[in-house]
Amino acid sequence: MTILEVNNLRKDFKAPDDTVRAVVDVPEFQMRLAEQIALKGESGSGKTTFLNLIAGILQADSGSIVIDGEEIMSLSESKRDNLRARKIGYIFQTFNLLQGFTALENVLLGMSFGSGVDEKYAQHLLERVGLKTRAEYRPRQLSVGQQQRVAVARALANRPKIVLADEPTGNLDRKRAFESLELIREVCTENGAALLLVSHDSEILGKFETVQNLEEINKCS
Amino acid sequence: MLLKIVLKSLRQHALSTFVTVLAIALASGLVLSVFAIQKQTYAAFTGGDIGFDAVLGARGSQLQLVLNTVFHLETSPGNIPYSMYLDIKKNPQVELAIPYAVGDNYLGFRIVGTSEEIFTKFEYRLGQKFQLEPGGKFFDPGAKEAVIGSFAAKETGLKVGDIFQPYHGLIFDEKNRHNDDYRVVGILQPTNSPSDRVVWIPLEGIYRIQGHVLRGTGENFTAEENAEIPVEAKEVSAVMLKFSSMQAGMNLDQTVNKQGKAATLAFPIGRTMAELFDKLGWLNRVFELVAYLVVVVAAFSILASIYNSINERKREFAILRALGASRPTVFTVILLEAVTIAAIGTLIGFLVFAVIMSATAYLVREQTGVVLNVFRFDSMWIFTPVLMIAVGTLAGIIPAFKAYRTDVAENLSPTS
Fold first, then answer.
1. CA count, 13 A, side-chain hemisphere, B372
2. Which segments of B161-245 does DSSP mark as H helices, in order?
3. Is B321 on the interface with A (CB under 8 A)?
4. Contact status, residue B100 vs residue B114, Cβ threshold 8 Å
5. What SS3 state is found at B184?
6. How far apart are CA A220 and CA B5, in angstroms?
7. How far, in Å, CA of B317 to CA of B307, rounded?
8. CB neighbours of residue B203 within 10 Å
9. Would the pLDDT of B363 be above 60?
10. CA trace torsion B85, B89, B95, B100 (10° rounding)
11. pLDDT over 60 at A95, yes or no
């Protein structure tokens, strides 16, 4: 079953000298349910923009993106927000945890705009990522690796159909990077969520069965 | 969860939240106080417990007459012959007529010469006559005795058995001490009325105080010890009146004020005071304006405080949006912050109000004896919170719109 289908997707940006430049120009891209794909791409190759387009954070100039049967390009912004909350989990390189909130509250926050707050499940997710005893800690009281694990738990809080991970190990040392990657892959598998991970780290990419080169998919890279 | 986001944000910006809440508290406290003071002073001075319907006094200002005799403020507009008191006392439409003679003080508290009917017949509040503290008695009309109002007794320290000498004039000046000795025979229980500030002595006592000159006949007369004072020589500052009906007051108003030229009848007392308040209406408008200006300043402080925090919080909004929060949700969060600040500020504003009102009530009581009821419910208790929350909401709109426009992708750095 196809969970993500991208066709003729194009996004242009205006350069400071007023010239228009395409950053993303992807004729075709697909993912099946529970599939795990790593996207390889150098810095500035449009990886983040591609993920933001899929997440509905950015509006494409043309093309189509279908997630779990819903064409997001035709949706209004608020409906795209809603779809993002319900079906997409997003893990950022810098984790993007809210500093004023505890680990548990950060996970609950992820739920509050989607399926609704379920504290028991949030606790379960934190336990799953090994932070059962750190649920009431704020991000600054956690190590970098622990913060990453909170971000993973939050991304899965709404039982998403697809998890987008943008250089999720970029801020971690080698050992923690592999541990974190394993964790992300495992919890996605357990939750039946597809995983689309972008990275330029060849060792990280080497852990995936399917690696696609964004420079080959994206015509303007 | 939205409320949690709001409260956490307010806590994260504790200092600016505190300052803004304080501004709102002062503004709402000021609005509540200005209107409450206006209403309560108006009510207390125009329709409060006075006990009399009218005051008969020298030809002149009705307002001066009322202030001088009812509130024991201001100077006396002059005297009227004692015979006028005797005449009006005989009027069948007059239920009670009590003479007042003023002109002396004790340490700034006014000495009023009067008849014993002030204690036996006068009701300062419906059904309530002056009551003595234990161990006291009312004065003997022929003796140099005094009965002291509760506040005056407390402030001067006078107690039953004490001897004091009056001072000439209505304003205390230690150089103007009379040599007459008066003995305190009773202390009155508190009445929460201007009478609490009065030192009551017999009317005859005023006439006989050393140095007092009577001009009831038009010629100077000085009372001699043990010699009777002729009625023609006697005079009073005013006669306090209670009528059998309001119609009686209207009839006397016609006779004294419109047809006669010898005296003035201040009737009804409440209306006379209301005219004063009406004349001072512009002052109230100024106070109201100042209060509303403070509200506007407080509103701008909410706006500035939240608006300035938006830039540093763009990432937070971007994260919320990335998690699925819609633009209206982010807008609502900021608006709720403004409303929460306004609501907390208004709650604290009630404390500010209580402090201002307590201080005002204390000062008004000290200066006039009139008691303001600080905690009497007023419609402003509803209107002010509604006003402040509306102001808070309005002040929150601009920063909320700024947050609404936050670009998600731009603020979810870094990009790769």
1. 25
2. 203-208
3. yes
4. yes
5. strand
6. 41
7. 14
8. 22
9. yes
10. 20
11. yes
Digit-coded pLDDT (tens) for B243-278:
988 888 888 888 888 887 788 999 888 888 888 888
Buried b or exposed e, range B154-170, using 16+ CB within 10 angstroms: ebbebebeeebebbbeb
* Residue A6 CB neighbours (<10 A): 22
Question: What is the structure's pLDDT at B392?
Answer: 92
pLDDT of residue B415: 47
What's the one-letter identity of residue B74?
E
Q: Do A98 and B9 touch (CB under 8 A)?
A: no
pLDDT band at A6 (very low <50, low <70, confident <90, very high): very high
Give me the pLDDT at residue B47, please. 66
Decide if B31 contacts B380 (C-beta within 8 A): yes
CA–CA dist B71, B85 (Å, integer): 21
Alpha helices in A32-130 (DSSP H): 47-55, 77-87, 103-112, 119-128
Residue A152 class from Cβ within 10 Å (0-12 exposed, 13-18 middle, 19+ buried)? buried
Q: Which DSSP category does A118 fall into?
A: -
Tell me which residue in B321, B323, B326 faces A109 most closely, judged by beta carbons.
Answer: B323
CB atoms within 10 A of CB B252: 22
Does the CB of B10 have a partner CB in chain A at under 8 Å? no
Per-residue pLDDT reduced to its tens digit, A181-204? 888 898 899 888 999 999 888 888
Give me the mean pLDDT over the B390-411 stretch: 91
DSSP, residue by residue, B331-392 = HHHHHHHHHHHHHHHHHHHHHHHHHHHHHHHHHHHHHH-PPP-TT---THHHHHHHHHHHHH
Which chain B residues touch A52 with a CB distance below 8 Å? 408-409, 412
**Amino acid occupying residue B188:** L
What are the distances in angstroms from CA B166 to CA A78, B110, B132, B158, B202? 84, 9, 22, 13, 13
Select the residue of A45, A113, A200 nearest B323 (Cβ to Cβ): A113
* % of chain A at pLDDT higher than 70: 99
A interface with B, Cβ–Cβ < 8 A, is 41, 43-45, 47-49, 52, 55, 57-58, 77-78, 81-82, 84-86, 90, 92-94, 96-101, 105, 108-110, 112-114, 117, 154, 158, 166-167, 170, 198, 200
Among residues A91, A82, A63, which one has the least CA distance to residue A177?
A: A91
Checking if the pLDDT of B414 tops 70, the result is no
Query: Are B416 and A166 a contacting pair at CB < 8 A?
Result: yes
pLDDT at B409: 81
Residue type at position A163: V
B151 — phi, psi (to 5°)? -70, -40
Contact status, residue A218 vs residue A45, Cβ threshold 8 Å? yes
Q: Per-residue pLDDT for B173 more than 80?
A: yes
DSSP string, B73-129: -S-----EEHHHHHHHHH-TTEEEEEEEEEEEEETTEEEEEE-THHHHT--SBTTB-
B chain contacts of residue A167, beta-carbon cutoff 8 Å: 416
Q: From chain A, pick out residues whose CB is under 8 angstroms from the CB of B326.
A: 77-78, 81-82, 113
Q: What is the DSSP annotation of B280-348?
A: THHHHHHHHHHHHHHHHHHHHHHHHHHHHHHHHTHHHHHHHHHTT--HHHHHHHHHHHHHHHHHHHHHH
pLDDT at B416 over 80: no
Is the pLDDT higher at A103 or at B48?
A: A103
Q: Which two tokens stand for residue A185?
A: 């892959």
Phi, psi of B57 (to 5 degrees): -155, -170
